[in-house]
Amino acid sequence: MELAAALLVTTHGALAAAVVLALATFLYFLYAAWLAPSATRRRLRGSGFGGPAPSFPLGNLPEIAASLAESNGTLPAGAGVTSDIHGAVFPYFARWRAAFDKVFVYWLGAEPFLYVADPEFLKSATAGAMGRLWGKPDVFRRDRMPMFGRGLVMAEGDDWARHRHIIAPAFSATNLNDMIGVMEETTAKMLGDWSEAVAAAGRSAGAVVDVERGVVRNAAEIIARASFGIGDEGGARVFQKLQAMQTMLFRSNRLVGVPLARLLHLRKTYDAWKLGREIDALLLDIIDSRRGSQHDAGGQEKKNKDLLSLLLAGNDETGEAAGKKRLMTSRELVDECKTFFFGGHETTALAVSWTLLMLAAHPEWQRALRDELREVTDDGPLDAAALGKLTKMGWVLSEVLRLYPPSPNVQRQALHDVAVDGAGTTIPRGTNMWVDVVAMHHDEALWGPDANEFRPERFAAGAQGGCRHRMGYLPFGFGGRICVGRNLTGMEYRVVVAMVLRRFQLAVAPEYRHAPRVMLSLRPSDGVQLLLTPLDQHTK
Ligand code: HEM
């Protein structure tokens, strides 16, 4: 009897707890998904920002999904390899711009995003000391936690400053020069695979190869070796798991910004978390064993060439900086290794892939780069001095990053209310900003009537390519948070493109479908199929 009564009380207690929990969840959802965003929307409208009407809790996500489904990312039939791509990659922005111009508000779930494609507005809101009023959006920090952890891309405030201070010197020219050998070695492997594919096709006219696949694999290997070394078993396993994580996160289709939407993807969230723990444990092992072996038997610092060793050296408790700044913990170093991998390989691989496509479509530039390469290197080694003299190749890189920016947007979140100079308006604290880099890079008002044409020579006049506003060209972001790895990209790009150009003649294959698409980065939807002809079968 007593047992039954106790059970009844327990059951009632559990039921009451469940009802309270359900009610609390409902109230939270009501607040986060309707009340708070509706109040923010009123404030934004009061500040003069218009935009498409959202319907909470999804905001403008349904319209975005419908617009993408309708356009299917495909450029008009017969357009060939046109670089007039903004309407295809961001069809919803193209539509809203027609109605609301270059600054407006749209909603990802319950998160307000201030769309900006006006460099003057961007300057007024972020330039100089105002940069400190902005951080990285919380909504993406949560969403991308398995990739970047609290590494530099997502760090804030003092933590960010400390990490950047330690990390930036590791990317100095001298350190990067030591990585050329690794780049040559892995790229030679990729070219060997392509040569085999051509030989297997058995045709003197060459063979069709999806170059993007090899270029991405190559870049992943380069960044893994350059970041933490993958010569030993531990490194190779981290590399495999990082690649698995990349695939997993790509496949998941999350309702960004919708409160509690993660509950709909519990399995994926758990799998990513579990894989993340495995990666962290392996990296921690590598870091701990490196910490113990930074010096050789004679007490001299070992000549390790990867970024992790450089960070450990810069972080060395016996170093001169000790005591002046707080050092990086092993946990923080783990996040930085992951950040380099996820932030550094696909972006660079895309720059190379889009370049090979552009060179295939513009044989005159292929010839110009090959001539420059021969003049500068005399078919000799690709050392740092020679790479630095590849001026035209630098223009081509800049033009490709303009037309096909691998990071198609840059984001910020207002940490305080931001009074915008000149615009006479205030951006409320918590508002996210979405800078549409693709739109600015293709804007005729900034670049002239040939904005959508591939004309690398526009960069002959300077690093801004003749853009009419200095904040109109942002392939690596802006302000204090500008990409820390851009010099590494510049070097890797030159090595890989030079080696490809020495080995193959490139032409666009008939099966290539030009359908650039944004999946975090700006990617070709179905690879980059090129016709590769070995150069010894061609007039060099
Ligand atoms: C074509 C190649 C690349 C592109 C287009 C690119 C683009 C970007 C962009 C747009 C940002 C954000 C800047 C901002 O918020 O203003 C960024 C930040 C960053 N990138 Fe890159 N990146 C490239 C290569 C690399 C490489 C090779 C690495 C490292 C190995 C790297 C590491 C980072 C890191 C750590 C940050 C965060 C910097 C900070 O917040 O202080 N990136 N990159």
TrEMBL record:
Gene Ontology CC terms, in alphabetical order: membrane
Keyword Protein biosynthesis among record annotations: no
Example of a GO MF term: oxidoreductase activity, acting on paired donors, with incorporation or reduction of molecular oxygen
Coiled coil: none
Main subcellular location: membrane
Compartment(s) where it occurs, according to its Swiss-Prot or TrEMBL record: Membrane
Domain of life: Eukaryota
Residue sites binding heme per the record: 483
InterPro entries referenced in this protein's UniProt entry, alphabetically: Cyt_P450, Cyt_P450_CS, Cyt_P450_E_grp-I, Cyt_P450_sf, Cytochrome_P450_Monooxygen
Transmembrane segments: 12-36
Cofactor requirements of the protein: heme
Gene Ontology process terms (BP): lipid metabolic process
The entry's keywords: Heme, Iron, Membrane, Metal-binding, Monooxygenase, Oxidoreductase, Transmembrane, Transmembrane helix
Family: Belongs to the cytochrome P450 family.
Protein name: Secologanin synthase
Origin species: Aegilops tauschii subsp. strangulata
